[in-house]
Amino acid sequence: MTTLLDLKSSVLRQVQRSQSLRSRREPPPAASSPLTHCPDPLPRRDELLSISSPFWRRISEEERGVPFERMNAIPSGNRRTWHAQAESQRGACTVPPPQEHVEQAFIPDRISRTELDLLYEEAVYTVVNRVGVASTEHVKSDEELFAYLLKVFDMGEEEHDIILQKVQESKRASFSLRVSVMKAKNLMAKDANGYSDPYCMLGILVGQSPREMEEKKERKFSFRKRKEKLEKRSSTKEVLPARCIQVTEVKPETLNPVWDEHFVFEIDDVHNDLLHLDIWDHDDDVSVAEACKKLNEVSGLRGMGRYFKQIAKSVRANGSASSGSEENADDFLGCINISLSEIPVVGYDNWFKLEPRSSASKVQGECHLILKLFTSQRDTALSKKDSNVSIHKKLLSQIVEYEHAHVKREPYNWNGQVSPPAWTVLTHHAVQTDLSPLQQAIIRWQCYSSHHRTQRVCYSLLLRLLRAIDAEWDPPTVRGDLERQLSDSFRLYTEHCLCLMKNMRQVFPCTSAAAITRYELMLRGIGYMQNMRAFKTVCPLRNELHLDITTAVKKGTAEWYESLIARYRPEDGTLEEQLKKLVQVVDAVCADVQRAQNIYNKLYYSAVKVDFFSISYRQLEKQVADDVNVAMERVCGTLEQESSRLTQTMGETIFELFMSLKILKGFREFLPLKDAKMLALTGFHNWFKSSIHKWLQIVHDRSCDRIRKAVETDKLEPVQQAKHSSSAVEVATCFSQVREIWLQLAWPDSAGAFIFVTRLTDNFCSEAVCYSEMITHKIERNQLGRDHKSFTVQLCIALNNTEHVRVFLGHLPRDLDWQGVERAMEESCGVEGKEQVYKALNGQLFNMDLDLQREAKRLISLLTDKMLPELRRYIQHISLSPDSINNDDAVSPLMKYLQDTMVILTENLVKENLTRVLQSMWELLLRMILDAVTENRGVQVEFYNRFQYTVETVLQFFHARGEGLSLEDMKSGEYKALDEELRLNKCSSFELIEQYYLEKISQQKTLKHTRYGRISVKCYYDAPEQRLTVEILHAADIIALDANGLSDPFVIVELCPHHLFPMAKSQRTQVKLKTLHPVFDELFYFHVSPEQYRHRFACLTFTVMDYDWLSTNDFAGEAVAPLSDFCWPGRPNASAAGKSVQPIILHLSRSKPSEKPIMRMLDARIGDREAQEFVRRLKEIEKSMEEE
Asked: Which spans of this chain does the record mark as coiled coil (predicted)?
């Protein structure tokens, strides 16, 4: 299609170069022009979209405070718009479609009065000379026919009488009979081979009286009689009463011959003459057939008589042979007798059964004949100077004009049916003037198509007439004037239809179902006509009709757009007014393109194989792009000025224009792939970049104002079935509208989309944090003077508000299609571009989430602070309860308070917030219980058991059998510290000391390369002697504790804890002066029983000290080694080869004992001697460390 259109580029150049707003200065077309009128009423904007997202609605004054409210206020009825339009179209079927105005050149000339009189004479002559049997559809009364003709020709009675008398005095019409012998079937087999060689003889029997006709019925006539009958007749006339005989070809060896031969007989008496036909089987060489063939070659009566005698002689000879040999005789196969008075007006086209000559004859079969009577000579003035075709055409035109004028209901849908009188006259005239079916079809087409140009008829009628021509088409029979007239009728009708196509939006609007139906039929007619054999024959130079249609569509589209510009005048007014008018223009174009895609394109493509949508869309898209580009250049130039800023209404209008262009561009998906490239609107979004940036700032400012007002008016009461208040709904709605705006923008440029999405995300996050801060401040201001329950409810709602906004913004990656932006940036900038998008957007969202959680914690802190006095009182009650009260009674006040609080929280908090609040309450209770336990160290064990019971009870309460907090989350952090505190406080002093050494052993295993040095020792156990040998080898990297940068180290080795080894004494090495790497190589022996070394806490301690002459020794470090490593059976150290084991390296540590909870617990046990002694020793070590 594109290639064909390029061939017409020179013709269409002016159409394609339609003016833009840069240079359009001509006045609009005159309103008085018959083809210029106001365009279709523009549909509402919400009626434009069936391929795109919902559009606009009218907004109230209250909604104008926020720009995107207007842009996102979408009516719920948009989806029903096209259905409603379809219903209105169906309902408009009875409404007449618009007038199909045509140019004056297409209107045919009117016939003169003189010609009407001659035509009337022709019609009267036809009525007077009617022949044939009339059908039930025909009128038989002459008076009725004359009365009808008087009306058609507007003729007076006197004039009629004059013309009728003239016709009656004229010579009557001479008739002829056309006989077509087509074929026969199922004939009798006369030859030995089971076949026959049939041929036909036919002629006209002269008129006879009624009595002769009766006798004729008694005896069958034949061109060949038996011998005895022929001998009785002496005259040739008696032998053969036919004045002319015709014969067909012989068809050998067949019982179903096909002749397809045509004959014409002149008729003297059309009412009494008879057609007679014989079928014979040809046998002899010289027969009746050859004789009959020569009849038509003889001129004069004498010659005719001589050949009649020859025929009779041949018959006699055959008759004589019948008594002897039958070999050379022509056998009779049947005959047919048809009275001419029985032939219908339109003739016969029937199968006739063959009849015998007598009752003794045996015949079978049928013969197909076509019979038609017509006038060979007419005594009228018009027939003497004009052709029968021209006369019939004029007569039909006059009748059609009259008949159509008297159609009352939907005359534009007239199917061409005429009244019985009209049909009678036309049928007789066509028969009498011997018009062929093809001639009649051509005449009907010429008349109706010509009449249609002034008084429209149903296009289905014209289509039927074209099909009739195509069905009867026979090129050799259409020559001369008839061919020229048919060519002219095709040309005029084509030009008429092209004119209507150019103005189709006015003539065939989509709002009229009747008009669309007519348009479809018209296109189907044009499509059918260009493929007709007749059209290709008589119009050989119009084989590219689809190019003419394309030209008409382009020109009509350009003119329609110009009328649209003239209507709205987008170049007038202020810049904002110009944009609003341009929006209306683009919306009207969108509506037109929508109609082209939904309705017109289907009609064009199915009928004429023309892509109407592509042609009109490319034309309109180019013109719109030119005009909008000019307007946006002015907008950008204005906004670049420092004194100019984008107003809200201007921003709304620019957004509307952008969306309208986006919708218009979206129709490109219906174009063929090759045509969808390089359209004028391909990069139209670049015209709006600077405007969109300014507009986003307006949206942000308006959003902040809207959020502030929402918080101010919020009464912190839940809305409907939700647990958040009106401000959260307003904020989510605000965000949702901005999100929908972005989705509607669908920015195609990946880099631009990244910038805009980043800015939108930043706006969302800052607005959400601002909202959470404002709602928190509102709660802080409202807490004064509020009772606990009402304050708790309001605080819960505020928490839910923050959570509602947080959850909404959590969907931003999906709502703003972050993945799409990432893919686009990856395609344009590689992996680095994708990572940049991911880090920037997710970083914003992460920081926002942290800020919202911070504000949520502030609100939860307000709640727990309110609960703190009550909780402290109940914890104190548990702490001070005497031992005589059981644990349930002591804990019940706290649990009742928690139960009442839980009811309020469960009713008013969403699940996520309920979890957060319960977690905070749990942690608060743990801290309070830990504080109470810490303040009461050294009391009786029952005190700690009660708090242990309290913790477990509260734990199960918050866990709520799996419906509340998880045990894993609760038994971590502070719970472990409290549980350890309670467990240790319930231990005896010896158990605490043992726990102390277990921790030391565990810590020793984790030490590696400390800065306090290390010591190398070897230990082995003699089981029979129950003796532990300790060999202290050397130390290295001891810390310097003297002023000279060295130390005087020695090692104290002892078994711990002392209550496990009461008889063991501590032992020490010699002092090694002025060294940090002393070598000792000393042996020490300890008695250790199996009952002692089996304890996990049993260990050797190596304490490295710095010897001072004048003051106490300084602590340099210590290390521990569990006895289980040396004494357990099976250990290498506990075998006979224990002396040869490798030494072990122990890293030294210097930790302050007071930092350990066990140390504080033992210190609190003032009356416990063992505890105090253990604490004293550790404090001495710590004191020496402090003195350093």
From this structure: none
Asked if residues 407 and 414 have their Cβ atoms less than 8 Å apart, the reply is: yes
Q: Which of 371, 434, 373 is nearest to 181 (CA)?
A: 371
> Given the structure tokens 């027939």, which residue do they identify?
383
More confident residue, 1167 or 529: 529
The pLDDT value given to residue 211: 53
In 1107-1183, the DSSP E strands lie at 1114-1122, 1144-1147
Please tell me the total number of residues recorded for the chain in this structure: 1188
| Amino acid in position 257 | P
* Cα distance from N-terminal residue to C-terminal residue, the chain: 101
Contact 583, 660 (CB under 8 A): yes
- Residue 896 CB neighbours (<10 A): 11
Report residue 46 as tokens: 């919400």
Instruction: Give me the residue label for tokens 């000290």.
Output: 1105
Number of C-alpha atoms within 13 angstroms, CB side, residue 738?
30
Element (H, E) at 1032: strand 1027-1036
C-alpha 1019 chain-centroid distance: 86
- Evaluate the CA torsion angle 536, 538, 544, 549 in order and state its sign: negative
Banded model confidence at residue 212, pLDDT cuts 50, 70, 90? low
DSSP letter at 427? H
Question: How far apart are the C-alpha atoms of 1153 and 1137, rounded to whole Å?
Answer: 38
Do 1097 and 998 contact (CB within 8 A), yes or no? yes
Reduce the DSSP state of residue 1053 to 3 states and report it: strand
Is the dihedral angle over the CA atoms 574, 577, 579, 581 positive or is it negative? negative
Give me the amino acid identity at 1045: G
Tokens at residue 256, please? 């179903």
pLDDT category, 824, cuts 50, 70, 90? confident
Token digits of residue 202? 């036919």
Tokens 């064909």, residue? 4
What does the buried/exposed string (b/e) look like for 1121-1142 if buried means 16 or more CB atoms within 10 Å of the residue's CB? bbbbbbbbeeeebbbeebeebe
In the predicted model, what is the mean pLDDT of the chain? 81
Say how far apart CA 654 and CA 160 lie, in whole Å. Answer: 77
Q: Find the helix or strand (DSSP H, E) in which 88 lies.
A: helix 81-91
Number of neighbouring beta carbons within 10 Å of residue 235: 9
Largest CA distance in the chain: 192
What's the pLDDT band for 257 if we cut at 50, 70, 90? very high
| Matching residue, tokens 């075998």 | 1135
Residue 203, H or E segment: strand 198-205
Query: By three-state DSSP, how is residue 360 classified?
Result: coil
State CA 219 to chain mean position distance: 83
Report the C-alpha gap between 1021 and 777 in whole angstroms.
72
Q: Is 991 helix (H, G, I), strand (E, B) or coil?
A: helix
Tell me which amino acid residue 1056 is.
C
Measure the CA angle with vertex 157, ends 399 and 111; round to 5°.
35
DSSP of 938-964, one letter per residue?
A: TS-HHHHHHHHHHHHHHHHHHHGGGTS
DSSP assignment, residue 245? E
The mean pLDDT of 875-899, rounded to a whole number, is 89
Cα 8–chain centre separation: 35
462-496 residue pLDDT tens: 999 999 999 999 988 888 889 999 999 999 999 99
- pLDDT, tens digit, 9 for 90 and up, residues 94-153: 578 888 765 555 566 677 888 888 999 989 998 988 888 888 888 888 899 989 999 999
The candidate with the shortest Cα–Cα distance to 1130, out of 1122, 1138, 1119, is 1138
Among the listed residues 636, 690, 637, 627, the one whose alpha carbon sits nearest the alpha carbon of residue 660: 627
Query: How far apart (Å, rounded) are the C-alpha atoms in residues 473 and 436?
Result: 11
Q: What is the reported pLDDT for 263?
A: 93
Pairwise CA distance, residues 601 & 633, whole Å = 34
